[in-house]
Amino acid sequence: MNNSQKIIAKNSKASFNYFLSDFLECGLSLVGTEIKALRVHGASLNDAYVIIRNNEAYIVNMHIAPYDKGNIFNHDPLRTRKLLLHKKEILKLGQKVKEKQYTIIPTKVYLVRGKAKLEIALGKGKKLYDKRDSEKERDDKRKIDKAIKNYNNK
Known about the structure:
With about 150 residues, this protein is α+β, with helices and mostly antiparallel strands. About 30% of the residues lie in helices and about 35% in strands.
């Protein structure tokens, strides 16, 4: 992560529910007060996903809270927003979604030099036993880190 990157929202459940691969950065087509609302940390990626329709990519269910200083022209919080990607990237993602049963998952939203960017990844759903393995690995890592910390403090 470089210094000019300010993370606004992360999808923490994405890595728990999916095996993620092929990360890609794309722009967001925003209107009016949406960018102002993003700057004051008013975004959520829970339940958000990306669809490809008419060779264009859209993000669905991404919640951007209404801007509190907005007026009657304030935006709809759950509006479907267009993603700014090259045609080749969209076709490549669409092909993998159709052929290999992948889902396109948004992983984080951040600002780079004042512009809103979205990181998306191809995700393959985890089974219940995969999720248990992930939890076990996380718990083991936490125990190891705690033991190392206790050992170093003695």
